[in-house]
């Protein structure tokens, strides 16, 4: 058993507790297979979890989304499940704190441990006389480890990117000056890809390249596996940056002395951070690039709008297909996802999905992050709802859209809940707000109509969306946990309220919206949202009596835009159907 | 000229800059005359402002509410006006920083300077080699200074207070234990009055006694001018506290060593704070009493609801009187205020107004904090709006209510704006929210319908309301500047959105609301608001076409409650009128 081998290693190296988190050295949301150490050790393949092994205990911590899957996958591995968030269940840090004895040693691979988490661990254990040791106990055990991806990096053409590397680095240096930073170390892969106008295929659904970057006031450095570079890319990068091998950064940063160094402790790994000597002054905050990247430039916005229309064609064709097909036969959730992808694959500049499609029938949709798999999926029938949350990567933008599709007969609770979610969606869609209003404050606008009817959703209302990059990006997030980032013109964000009822149904309606200017008057400068996703919202599922006239008008206007934007790209039968399902509704 | 005399003093004492703020030693919102040093020196009588005098300059800083009044009042005093908030106008700290030279001395009376402000001043000047000196240059100049009030303190009966001193101090000690505090120094007068169940008349409209308190884990001390105490009050206080003379606290606190001392730096004056020796550990935050006082007990809530109904009778009688009287003759704003007071004076347990009534006709209402005075008031005619914001202190509660009353013909903008303010008011009134939702998050609920129509108000949506205490109290405040305090059952707060148009009109509709429990379900525990103020909202000023049916129902339900709660206490003519003005409206 792999666990026994790990314990032998621990004994040899005098490690009493070994922590295996789910992380790469860059704090990425999704991981290349190479970094899935926790899955290798525990057998559990979900996207989130931490394993801790001691002499006599081996636990896997994961959250409610994964209790069932994790329980099944860790059977016979020697690991036991710790259900995060359940009453009385300690966090892994608390568990270590409660059990560790003086002079014992905690081991972890500092490359796969973010500095902020490290600070928390250290602070939790500060009253103990213990040691935290950077040690890699996995590499020798993992014999058939997948390779790091060797795909070639490609240039993201300026006609898509909208700004040259030169402009971007110059903006970054302005931000650095404001923060009084001599240099910044950038470890997050989407920030690096954005800054250098490069893309790659190193992470599934996410067009980034495994790399590091350092930008000083007048020089910049790029650290990467040089095999991934073509001559063209080298030339492109050399306009602004010197290129080093990927791992050289660890020694490179040791040479900084007496500098003001800006880092994002939520993104930098503890190993790299520890190599900064103490003569330096650390300025810590969200990556400066995140703020620059989060406000899209005009070319990005123009492209993103066009891309969203293109993507809407695929989604609309899919809905038409599904609604007709399900009358004839049952369809598996997996076939539905594949069909949707096939519509997208036909589109200009399509690269990949932007995340694993969620096609969840009936009560499956009540489980957050449900994914149909070959050994666990449902057949879609001609009643109830199918929730489809999907998106794609195009060279000229990233999409993310959710529709909950009525397949036939609905019960009154399904109709009520669908209509309430629509009210919530329209509330944010048609909101106006004064300049300076923050991401966090806007969240309650969407919850207000649901709360009035005793409903809620246990996730944020919206996340920032990348541009041919991460489908989830910061700095903003319309959420109670938002950091209070003022919403700026050019920010792109999702609008995705929902209602989830265990054992019954899950409903979510999601479009992408962008912040645009509205009027300026004695009260100040107003901003509003412009919705850029287009696909019909299912009027078969609406109870018009719980919509106000204002809401009915807002929906009708949106549907008019859906028809106008999409109809020219559809076949006659699809077009006729779209005319019908986007017709004006009234009481 | 008084300024010359001050400068002579400054020269004698080697003071180069002297700061005269608007403060008492307790951080009170309203000040007894004794403390109005800034008004004495500058002639400016407004409620906010700071004067700074140097050898050759003398400035008064105040905000937009007071530019006109201040300009007029400081004429010929040698002071010049600094318009706070206007572009390019330095704050007084910035001005001192820009002008002061090495080795110069800033003087201020540390008793009238809050510790937080002192910290800011010190930090702003930290790069200069200057001294900040505690010195009172006013006392010898101010020959006809009013006395400190000598009114007797009285007991706030347990039948009104709901909890004994013993219970309150025991709750406070629980909070102290949570914060690991050995003692807490309480300087804010409403907190002291609440804690000891005492009241007095030391501040206009605010039934508090000038005093300090210290609570240790097993002893408590009360510092006051002993002439203000009757034998009965001494006996009452001695249940829990030892009594000392008011100024003895300054020496008393010098004796604490190695203690954990909890203080509110926004309420403690710099002189008192400076007397705490450095062996102590300071824990700073909002007064712990503020959190206890902010959640009303059941007897307070029951009384406050009854008091609000009683107060509503006065307001309703006043509106009836005004609407009839103005058809016959013009009425001065001052007469209107006095008339309203006369209706309140007739009510059980009435003590005083809870703040200076704002009765502002037409465009006067667009000025925030407008107060009619003997030499500056308008005559009310039978057209446009009168805004009346008023409230009272009763032994069993404090009220605060605003109605904007249509006196006859209105133009379409007045009707539109009145209706928008009503939409905003109803939005918060009928809100439901999950436990844990904060004061700050709720604010946008009220602004949402106004922002949609390009309107806004430049003040908070609501403030906490005391119970026979300060009309404005914390810790909560429904405002973008709220501190993120979770709204708890038993919190009482105002709901007062508005629209203000310079030169045209000002509209505000204000009721007091309390947080109550609603249902608990899979989504969590819901709270909602219960409106406890009752008086008709003027249906003559409503454009029913911009209200949704839901809003119309909410208003109709409120008006039904107004009629049901008030009609039995009115004369027949008033009652018939009330029936008419609270009738159900519809499209």
Describe this structure in words.
Two copies of one chain form a homodimer. By secondary structure, chain A is an alpha+beta fold. Chain A has three domains: 2-134, Creatinase/prolidase N-terminal domain (Creatine Amidinohydrolase, Chain A, domain 1, 3-Layer(aba) Sandwich); 154-292, Creatine Amidinohydrolase, Chain A, domain 1, CATH 3.40.350; 298-572, Alpha-Beta Complex (Creatine Amidinohydrolase), CATH 3.90.230. Helices cover 33% and strands 21% of the residues of chain A. In chain A, helix 3 (67-73) links the parallel strand 3 and strand 4. The longest helix of chain A is centred in the middle third of the chain and has 31 residues, at 298-328. Chain A starts with a helix and ends in a 6-residue tail after the last helix. Chain A binds chain B through residues 427, 430-434, 437, 440-445, 447-448, 451-452, 454-456, 458, 480, 502, 518-519, 521-524, 526, 548-550, and chain B through 427, 430-434, 437, 440-445, 447-448, 451-452, 454-456, 458, 480, 501-502, 518-519, 521-524, 526, 548-550.
